[in-house]
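Summary of Year 1 activities. Much of the first year was spent building the evaluation harness for sequence design. The harness presents a backbone, in tokenized form, and records the residue chosen at every position. We chose the following record to illustrate the format because it has been used consistently in internal testing since the harness was completed.
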């Protein structure tokens, strides 16, 4: 994909598919601003609607790719418009644009999702071009995914072959210390680049594996490949932790755990340097079984992390019963904690809880310096997010590390110490 620089200096992807956009907004001035911002980003096919009814008619008569929707409009308001759209064969994405308080907008976003609409997010008024661009980029990737799904590019056969040939590889996302920027570990994430069909989104092949009884095989393959890398890191004197994900389905599978132990023995990797991440939802079912597996992992020295914390419904009792060593805060609270009071409350609560229970805290989804500073000040231990590093193939880690050390130095991230 080629990038060009617009007059405003924003990066614009100039080969996005042609989009037809509807702006539903009763205020002429606000419509004008949005239209201009979209034109600056290269989107010229824009239709105006001064009311909910007009927008509904436009969406009915045309194939619309994106609706930018105000909430307060005379007659049919934004919420009623979304409800009507959900009953039509409307396939476009939706961005909410409003000056209302964030909790109100958040409820509308949830409502839209519950209606089954593709909601990209919200833009606060006054509208910022950067925010529009971020949401439109998200839409671009969504349209690729939808295309992939519609064409069912990944078949079960493809998956079986990839597993047999070992072409699904672990990529590694570095984790660094909030305290001093130190490189502490990586999380191994499964990535699949099909030779003809290109990048396959993990959500797609992981659920395909789960639905067809192949998840243990996939997990085993990622384990064996990443433990070999952990061996090489240790051999080169790099003392970093390896985090690996275990599907809820695989937790009771003792064979899978035995083979993980065996890989560690075979490659001389101390289980203390390996953390097993389990999603919070796992513990809703059979707590006895979960407790048995989790305790066995801890007995053998592995670290145990509760992944995506805050998105499931783990009770405090479960958290204290199970022998966790790490609490991983979900990205949905981190990525906008400074602009949303409820997210900030959950972040502070979770960090306190981790501290009280003696667990290491990890923040996922740290994307900018402002979020970094907040989490560092709140005393979070470990950062994992695009701000410090994206997931990458193993051979790019050393290059990243060199750049990261410069970034840490240049940005004076640790002046507060
Ligand atoms: Mg994880």
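For this record, the design step produced the sequence shown next.
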């Amino acid at each position: 994909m080629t990038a060009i620089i617009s007059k405003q200096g924003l990066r614009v992807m100039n080969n996005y598919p042609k989009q037809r956009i509807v702006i539903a907004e009763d205020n002429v001035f606000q419509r004008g601003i949005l239209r201009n911002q979209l034109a600056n980003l290269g989107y010229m096919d824009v239709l105006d609607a001064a009311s909910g009814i007009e927008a509904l008619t436009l969406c009915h008569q045309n194939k619309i790719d994106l609706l930018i929707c105000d909430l307060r409009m005379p007659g049919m308001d934004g919420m009623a418009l979304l409800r009507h759209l959900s009953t039509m064969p409307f396939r476009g994405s939706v961005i909410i644009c409003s000056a209302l308080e964030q909790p109100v907008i958040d409820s509308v976003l949830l409502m839209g999702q519950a209606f089954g609409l593709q909601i990209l997010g919200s833009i606060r008024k006054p509208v910022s071009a950067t925010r529009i661009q971020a949401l439109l980029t998200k839409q671009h990737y969504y349209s690729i995914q939808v295309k992939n799904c519609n064409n069912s590019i990944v078949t079960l056969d493809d998956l079986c072959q990839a597993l047999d040939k070992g072409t699904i590889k672990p990529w590694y996302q570095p984790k660094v210390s909030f305290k001093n920027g130190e490189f502490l570990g990586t999380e191994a994430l499964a990535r699949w680049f099909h030779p003809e069909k290109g990048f396959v989104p993990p959500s797609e092949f992981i659920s395909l594996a789960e639905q067809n009884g192949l998840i243990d095989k996939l997990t085993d393959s990622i384990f064996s490949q990443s433990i070999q890398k952990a061996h090489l890191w240790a051999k080169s004197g790099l003392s970093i932790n390896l985090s690996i994900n275990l599907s809820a389905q695989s937790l009771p599978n003792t064979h899978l755990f035995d083979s993980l132990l065996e890989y560690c023995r075979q490659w001389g990797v101390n289980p203390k340097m390996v953390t097993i991440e389990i999603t919070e939802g796992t513990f809703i079912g059979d707590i006895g079984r979960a407790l048995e597996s989790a305790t066995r992992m801890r007995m053998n020295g592995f670290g145990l992390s509760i992944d995506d914390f805050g998105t499931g419904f783990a009770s405090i009792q479960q958290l204290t019963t199970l022998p966790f060593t790490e609490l991983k805060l979900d990205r949905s609270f981190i990525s906008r904690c400074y602009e949303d009071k409820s997210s900030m409350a959950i972040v502070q609560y979770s960090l306190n809880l981790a501290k009280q229970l003696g667990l290491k805290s990890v923040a996922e989804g740290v994307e900018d310096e402002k979020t970094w500073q907040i989490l560092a000040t709140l005393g979070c231990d470990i950062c994992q997010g695009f701000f410090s590093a994206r997931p990458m193939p193993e051979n790019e880690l050393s290059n990243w590390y060199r750049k990261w050390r410069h970034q840490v130095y240049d940005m004076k991230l640790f002046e507060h110490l």
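The longest strand covers residues 183-194. Quantitative recovery figures across the full test set are reported in Table 2.
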